[in-house]
Amino acid sequence: MDTEPTPLATPITPAAREIKPTWDDNWGETTTAVTGTSELSVSQEEVVGLGKEIQDRTQGFRRYLPLAVGLCVGLLVLATPLVFLLLPAVMWPDRLQACGAACEGLFLSISFKLLILLVAVWALFLRPGRASLPRVCVYRAFLTTLTLLLTMSYWLFYGVRILDAQDEDYHGIVQFAVSLVDSQLFVHYLAVVLLELRQLRPCYSVCVIRSTDGETRHYNIGQLSIQRAALSILEYYYRDFPLHNPALLSASKHRAAKHLAGLKVYNVDAPGNTAGAQPGNGNQSRAMVSAAAKRKDSAHNELYYEEADYERRVRKRRARLVVAVEEAFTHVRRMKKEDERASPSDIMDVREAALAIFPSMARALQKYLRTTRRQHCHSMESIQKHLAFCLVNNMSPKAFLEAYLAPGPTLQYGPERWMADQWTLVSEASVTSGIKEGTEFLLRCLDFSLAVTIKGIPYIRLTEEYIDPKSHKFILLLQSETSV
Amino acid sequence: MAFIPGQPVTAVVQRIEIQKLRQGDNLILGFSIGGGIDQDPGQNPYSEDKTDKGIYVTRITPGGPADAAGLMMGDKIMQVNGWDMTMVTHDQARRTLTKKKEDVVRLLVTRKSLEEAVKQSMSYPRQ
Fold this sequence. Notes:
Helix content of chain A: 40-55%
Shape of chain B: globular
Radius of gyration of chain A: 35 Å
Distance between the termini of chain A: 84 Å
Radius of gyration of chain B: 15 Å
Oligomer: heterodimer
């Protein structure tokens, strides 16, 4: 068993680039600057100007810059009412009219509203972005501008009416601050509606087709801009589509090449001309022409038999694999109470148990994966890890095998297969415009692309029909035969 | 043999007289009937009109009294000993045919071939 060939080849490493999965379970989308957080769009120009060659460093930088900016704006928003309240007490405390219970009520309300605003802003905006989109989200830019406008106008009024005039009515100042917090809460409500609620109601049906093998899926999404729709679709892609396997496409390419080669022969040596000029060549070309014609005729035949043969081979290997795995699983079982007396060399932890039974099934598994051309997706390390996982969770051999019998979603395999930073959105309409019926765009990865078409969900008209429960009546239909 | 409700039914009939055979305690006729106004007429394989709820002969025991008398499978029974059989329930028909006091049943039966035979004979000019 030690002459085990290192089966499943080393996983493919991409050149030089540090792969950062740009998806995150936190929902805060990123634009170049406006990552999940920011209410400030000015920084986009700064970031774009940083240049592409230091993209590796800026990847990390770009992801967290908007978070920092968002924090600053959030602090500004939260601090402004407090500053409004404190400045009069600091600058002209002696002339200030004390106000009693009404003010205290307002202080309480300010503090709780600020707390709620703090939690709400944290929940909606202050999260690391999960993706980097090509353009700024229009709604986020709008909301940022709105917030800043609001705050600036309040500062303006405050500066002119209160600071310059040194207003003595503290009650009025407190009410002013409370109204600012209320407006900020309403802007936050608007943010929730625009950014989170609007796309929840599905109104478009999306058809996603992978260009290389034709895998098709359909999804329902709501009102979104093209880039955000593309982001949702990519998340569904990573969940639903089986792993893209370039090795499986070589067969059809081979056939296409043969077909073209046959055609070439037919075109170059036309059957009529060769009789007089070059007799030797003529015979040969005629033979090639007829061979090409026969090849064209038999191409479908070849395909049929090839596929039947492949099916049989796969099934045979699969049968051997299933038997080998079942046998391997019978060699190991969980330790029970009465086994405690067994010799210590027999008692193993899960890692060692996996390593112990792995060799007996490794060969069959490797052969099966080679036949189905998926040997590069699974490294020996990953198989042993999966085996240990199955042993720990008391899974049956069939449960262990399922991971290898069919290709799973892309995320199931190692990060080198994800290619999450290689996606390009190719669209004729502007990517910040909303999706409409008939929108089409392309999501291109390195060697395949996803073609996306959008159709509206039809307007459904539902009518009702009332059935009286007493109207369900039946008669018995007999046909009896009696002999007399 | 479709009937129009309210109009009298006309048919070409054949008179068949069957002697009941005694078998132990029973008097049997040697055929089976199907149909009746309480039955489903659509399932009757012998009727031309699938709304016909008359009594039909569904099976004949070979060598039995009915067979000897010339009753054929698929015949529709119109009368039994004068009693009408076109508008009776299945059970009434059975009881009419199996009256213990009667030894003989005189049936009026109709079938498609009778009508055709009459038509054919009527088409030949008389001499």
